[in-house]
Design goal:
The structure is a homodimer of 494-residue chains. Chain A is 52% helix and 12% strand. Chain A is built from 20 helices and ten strands. Chain A has a five-stranded parallel beta sheet with strand order 2-3-1-4-5, sandwiched between helices. In chain A, strands 7-8-6-9-10 form a five-stranded parallel beta sheet, sandwiched between helices.
Chain lengths: 494, 494
């Protein structure tokens, strides 16, 4: 595969200087137009050591307006990063819409080096690559222009380059001991690199192999590839925008008959006496369990979804009352901020993942994508349609990292909701809780029901099962939630 | 001082339950109204061990809508925090406008414990407290409602409480070995606590001492103090808003005669040959110096300010061309995002401070407050007027942390600017750089001149001096910048 990048391609200084002004001017123009689009640009710079990755980035920031460009390296993992799933550091580094992010090494370096050093097997490598492919596809579907550059040097050339760097006192420091170590492993690297490239060379996220022997050819080629990708991305976006797709809300008729929700027994209730007794017991237990989890550096993510007025707020208060305030934080999910809107919809949830040992309570969550955004037409059908898989992949990453994930759907009957709406209007300190929007949502009960049923069916996984809470009796619901949380924690940390 | 909080105040269960509903309802109402204001609420919970700080927070989150409340503890310092100035972690935790942040321990714990253990002397403690007072005053002037609660227990009561916690198997884990250690140091703590409270008990940031022996009295009192502060803050804000102050741009006539800017010799220039030779030399040196600084974990902050078309962008490129892209990032400062707008104006700069060993290049900076915001009237005179001190305090914190700070003002003559504006309109790939706004700014040259002169005069400190760059000759300017940077780095790390 790499033979295609060992052809000795060169560009003379004269040709380089002839072609550069036009390339620069077109790059700047494309970058300028990019600013007002919702397209983030992600440039991955990978390749063999000493191929000049840093130099290529120098060139790019020289040619582009550096104010719209952000570069990121992934070397030392900070402890804040180590305490979150692997991809947290990559999500942190993703550029906002209209901006260009240049990532050194990125999500590819780790798996390659691990495989070369024999820390993982091919089967594990392939699984890692599947995740990468899924991740990249997700970004591209969200509008990202993804440009993956692989700088190649032949074995001979790599040796020559390292020697040359070492000879020059001004560049000597750039040759690290690992560079020679990796050079000795050249063939091994080539083998793994090829496997990685083949595995992740999808149409929407194709690799560009660049022969890096001649620096002018290398830089100009990198610039051209980026230019082409930018111009093509902009063109496709303009065309799509011209069609002016309006997202009609999904109007598929809700399924009749038995549904998941309809099987929740809403008649379950608790007497005040039983409630009080069990509440104290559960809260004391939860308190101890959260401290124990903290001692073991196991963090928790708890998701609360449910009908308006189903009692999410008061249930959350019963949970937080049991946990030391130093150990939890609540993440209320309302309309996204503009920084959040400038990223993939999952970005805002990644940024709130808890540190080791802490509990993050999401009051509404990423499921908004397949609930309110679906029903109200804020997301188009392909968008919310692919979200199920994106969400379960996200949750799988949490669980693989050791996060204890618990998801609650607080269910109430339509009649009970009405009763509570009316009650809220009558009690002064509850009045702030009821808005016009609640009534509007209520009028779409059937559409929401269909969405909830599909959500539970498609995102109840072994690692992230839904707990449907019988919410007509608030006391019963709270105990069910506390007991579920205790069970989850207990089984995970004992 | 603490005698006032050892009077044995109590509230019976009956009275408590009588008064609670009204308090809750008013708290919720105040919180609801808060949402649509630009006022962040900062509640500090301090006090002696075992006084029930956690329990008070439980109560508060129970009484308030927890979705608008964020709690933060400051215990373990993460490495990302350690790599920044001390206050970085506090800035991270500040609540946005319209929201309530409850901070445990906050900026007070560290200095108190250090003083009790004899790690610092009173003189250092007092300096730390001065900084705290300045910081709090700054937040309050920015609109924050700052509520500082100190929970007090007598020596006897603290002992009783610790014993009681230890007796109960369900609370035993809450008593830490340090609690008993601190108990033995009770008198020492009391002495330091008093010093701290006295020193930071400013009118706008007063302490509220709460007797914490009786938990009902303690909780109800905390709730009432918060309610009162919220209602008063809301009232003051409404009154101020009703006056509908319009910020007239400052129209003080610019001073005549010799100014700081007028003393910059704009005739300095370099021949192309000298430029080329020196450029290579400086860049090679800067490259080595940034690596050396990285090895010593010393980070840099470089500020670029200057007239439109003064050559900031191209100067930055000559700097970044010398630095490994893995070591620097550029922070372009344009209009703030809504998350940034929801905080104090310095917040957005704190969040971009570099990790240890890295270089952050600010393309425009916090000086916008006393330049564009002043001249255009985006900030009122009291706001930009107090910013000089806020800024030098900020910069002092950077430098105290070991950050190498360099600040450039790129100066050009009014004629040279005009020449460049015209040139930009003629060269295709430069055209994107010139906008209507540039011409508008140019028409305010005199007002900007006055602002720049005052800025340089008032913020050129020993730890953060300004370098005025003679920018009429771009070559000269770039070399001046590179040389200055090299000198700064060299003197700091050698």
């Amino acid at each position: 595969m790499f033979e295609a990048a060992e052809l000795g391609r060169k560009i003379s200084k004269k040709v380089f200087e002839q072609q550069l002004p036009k390339l620069r001017s077109r790059l700047l123009e494309a970058q300028f137009r990019l600013k007002s689009t919702p397209l983030p640009v992600i440039v991955l710079i990978s390749g063999v050591d000493a191929a000049g990755k840093g130099e290529v980035v120098h060139r790019l920031t020289e040619w582009l307006d550096p104010r719209g460009v952000q570069t990121h390296t992934f070397r030392d993992v900070s402890d804040e990063e180590r305490e979150r799933p692997d991809y947290w550091r990559f999500w942190r580094a993703l550029p906002a819409r209209g901006r260009i992010g240049i990532l050194f090494g990125s999500w590819y370096s780790g798996p390659i080096v691990q495989r070369v050093y024999g820390e993982i097997k091919n089967s594990k490598l392939d699984r890692t690559l599947d995740r990468i492919a899924f991740f990249e596809e997700m970004l591209v579907k969200d509008g990202a222009i993804l440009i993956k550059l692989w700088l190649h040097l032949s074995r001979k050339e790599q040796r020559k380059r390292l020697k040359a760097l070492e000879r020059d006192p001004e560049t000597r420091w750039r040759v690290l001991p690992t560079d020679w170590k990796h050079f000795k492993l050249y063939d091994r690297f080539a083998e793994i690199d090829e496997r990685v490239i083949r595995h992740t060379d999808a149409g929407s996220a194709a690799w560009h192999l660049i022969e890096a022997t001649d620096h002018r050819y290398r830089d100009l080629t990198a610039g051209r590839i980026i230019l082409e990708a930018l111009e093509q991305g902009l063109k496709q976006w303009r065309e799509a925008a011209a069609q002016n797709r309006h997202h009609a809300p999904a109007t598929r008729p809700p399924k009749r008959g038995v549904t998941i929700l309809s099987r929740v027994d809403l008649n379950q209730a608790l007497s005040p006496r039983d409630y009080k007794r069990q509440l104290q017991k559960c809260q004391a237990k939860l308190n101890q369990l959260t401290w124990a989890a903290c001692a073991k550096h196991r963090s928790s993510v708890v998701v609360f979804e449910g009908w308006d007025a189903a009692g999410k707020g008061s249930a959350i208060r019963r949970v937080t009352a049991a946990i030391d305030p130093r150990l939890y934080h609540i993440v209320p999910i309302a309309a996204p901020t503009d920084e959040e809107r400038a990223h993939h919809y999952l970005w805002r949830f990644w940024r709130h993942l808890p540190r080791a040992g802490r509990v993050a309570i999401f009051d509404r969550s990423w499921y908004g994508r397949v609930l309110v955004e679906r029903v109200e037409g804020f997301a188009a059908e392909p968008e919310w349609g692919r979200a199920y898989l994106e969400i379960t992949d996200f949750e799988e990453q949490l669980v693989e990292h050791g996060i204890i994930l618990t998801k609650f759907w607080l269910h109430v009957s339509k009649e009970e909701q009405l009763r509570r709406f009316k009650e809220r209007q009558d009690i002064p300190y509850k009045r702030y809780k009821i808005t016009e929007e609640d009534w509007r949502n209520r009028s779409k009960w059937d559409a929401y029901s269909a969405a909830v049923n599909e959500m539970v069916a498609r995102t109840s996984t072994e690692f992230g099962p839904w707990t449907l809470v019988a919410g007509n009796d608030k006391k019963f619901a709270r105990i069910q939630i506390l007991k579920t949380l205790c069970r989850r924690l207990e089984s995970e940390i004992s």
